[in-house]
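I had to read the description of the data format several times before I understood it. Each protein is reduced to its one-letter sequence and a matching series of backbone shape codes. The format is easy to grasp once an entry is in front of the reader. For illustration, here is how one protein appears when written out as sequence plus structure tokens:
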Amino acid sequence: MAKISIVIPTLNAAGALRRSLPPLAEFAALDLIREVIIADGGSVDGTAAIAEAAGAKFVQTEKGRGRQLAAGAEAARGDWLLFLHADTVLQPGWDRAVRDFIGDSGNSFRAGYFRFALDDGRLGARRIAWLANLRARILGLPYGDQGLLISRGFYRKLDGFRPLALMEDVDLVRRIGRGRLRVLAATAVTSADRYRRDGFWLRPIRNQFCLLLWFFGAPLKTIMRVYYR
């Protein structure tokens, strides 16, 4: 069975890693995970200590999620790469879904992503999750918090993640193409903190506006000002 390298970009993500690393740790000693790589952009909290305590490989690189993901992939030794966000927790059954995907030789030049959910039971959170899963299925636009499972060969053929501080996930899945994306039979639960902070209506509207700006060719600095406002 081919093994996967899990790549997680971080920046002061100690709290998030305390939740997301334990579900991975029990599989690290089995035949599925070769390594977990933390690609860090300059954390000053306990991120490095938590990563090392969990047995993860800690890679220090330049800040910027695209650069960090690319650095993590470069350091990876697995046959397959699974990119995850630090605040995303994989739910039971994720390992079986990954095994099924990588065990199918027809997926060598396809990529998989998880169903999306937020760790909040309110109607607003459920609405966001429903729309995110619909967007991924209909438009072929899963975001990074849905994870991305891709063979090393296919990743390299696509030239991997570009050094983008934002929209690096959209950029890569657009190059993969809707017809080569498959939803995995498992769920990834992401922290709803930014939605609770910015609003269950305002944050999604802002995200979609950023996506429109990207498609219309707006400068990345402009999109970042909107996203982080």
